[in-house]
Amino acid sequence: MKRWAQRIFGGLAVVALGLVTLYTVSRLRGPSAGQEAALALMEQPMDTPGRNAFATLWLLDRDVPPARLEQIAELDIRRFADSPLGSAPAGGFRSVAAAEYPALEVGHDEEPALCALRETGCLAQVRSDRAAYAGRIDALRPLIRRAEGLSAYGHYRNRFAPRMDRPLPQVGNAMSAQRTAYSLAFVDGDVAGGLAGVCGMAETWRRFVPHSNSLIVSMLAINTVTDASTLFAEMLAELPADYPLPAECATAFAPPRAGEGLVCEALKGEFDFTRRALQANPHWRQHQPRGASRLFYDQRMTEARSASAFAQYCNEQARERFAADAARQPAASSGLAGFDCLANSIGCLLADVAAPAYVGYARRGQDHAARRRLMATLLALRKRSDDPRPLQARLDAQPPVLRSANRPIEPSDNGAALRITLFDDSLGADHWQVPLPPELRDE
Asked: 431 in helix, strand or coil?
């Protein structure tokens, strides 16, 4: 009996020694090489072409003189940084501009309703009550001009302190007002003005999709470009195929650039925000692991694990899948089974909570690039409106930059429209389509 007890205790001692050894190796090794590479990738500086649109977008709904935009934004940045976490009133943190300058959005709930986001038929809507829309748009001209001023900027970088209560841009109904105004111009006979307006809108917001450190702004940019594309296609469907287009349209609806829609900069911003917001939270500072629990928490290992969750949408493999237009799939989590979690189980749990699956946003970026291919294809077909071949044959003959083996551009509505399959169907639609001008349809 004594010999059996010695064997049991000896076995337990070996197991304990083995666990201690594994823990020690895990702790000393720290992040894996792959995690370090992911962390380095997510810490790369943001690409910032042109000027930062932060101040203009933050104050878009206030009649602030352009010369004072940056000054007031700086005041708001300092006020927010100095305010306690969660101290904003029920309506959220407000700019000092609210006390000095009137709101640009006159009659927020007035009729007739502006063209709604993600809806078609803006031209028909304006035609249904042209006089009423003219009055509504006249009152919104200052807001529309301010929104058009975003064309002077090349990127968006959020400058507010990284906290969970960080305020959002106050864009209001600016984008809906723009689309309604350009529809009104088109309906009233200013065809060139309506086309230039909607193309300028698409060109402006297209820049912010890959050049924003805010996932919210990148998604707003994708939605805005989509709405502008829909309206532009509806305008083209009412015009002869040889109607000359403003120069802005060629840039706005050019084929997608490599990686456009990958929203990598936005995901870098999300990663930076999640880790810095956690460290800035007083509750976290008060209750972060101490004493014995520190044995199962390491800050560097936690950040590296979190970086890996974000980098899977941004690394070279992600770029290859994006270039192949293969639908992004959720990556399986290893949970606490990873070797790094032996010495960082608390950190693994925190990293997995702080970096949830962003697959839906990645798919929206893929859909954005697919829509760019469709719109560029529409313009390419328009240039060859005398091509006698069937629509499908003309689509098959487009250059590789405009084609995808995984989801080709297809004729729909008996050849009266073009459509693509959407990877992201969270908004209730599994396809996106635009009408074709009559000359481009199959007879």
From this structure: strand
pLDDT at 7 over 70: no
Residue 35 counted as domain residue = no
- How many domains does the structure of the chain reveal? 1
Residues pairing with 103 in the sheet: 62
Question: Quick one: average pLDDT of 229-255?
Answer: 96
> Per the confidence metrics, is the pTM higher than 0.85?
yes
3-state secondary structure 285-354: HHHCCCHHHHHHCCHHHHHHHHHHHHHCCCCHHHHHHHHCCCCCCCCCCCHHHCHHHHCCHHHHHHHHHH
Mean local confidence (pLDDT), 76-88 = 88
* Length of the chain in terms of residues written: 443
pLDDT band for position 281 (cuts 50, 70, 90): low
Which range of residues forms the domain containing residue 102? 54-263+364-387
Q: Tokens at residue 329, please?
A: 């799939």
Q: 1 lies in a domain?
A: no
Could you give the count of Cα atoms lying within 13 Å of 435 in the half-sphere of its Cβ? 15
Please report whether residue 249 resides in a domain. Answer: yes
Give yes or no for a contact between 443 and 416, defined as CB atoms under 8 angstroms apart: no
- Give the amino acid at 111: E
Contact 251, 203 (CB under 8 A): yes
Mean pLDDT, the chain, whole residue set: 86
Residue 17 maps to a domain: no
Burial class (CB in 10 A: 0-12, 13-18, 19+), 373: buried
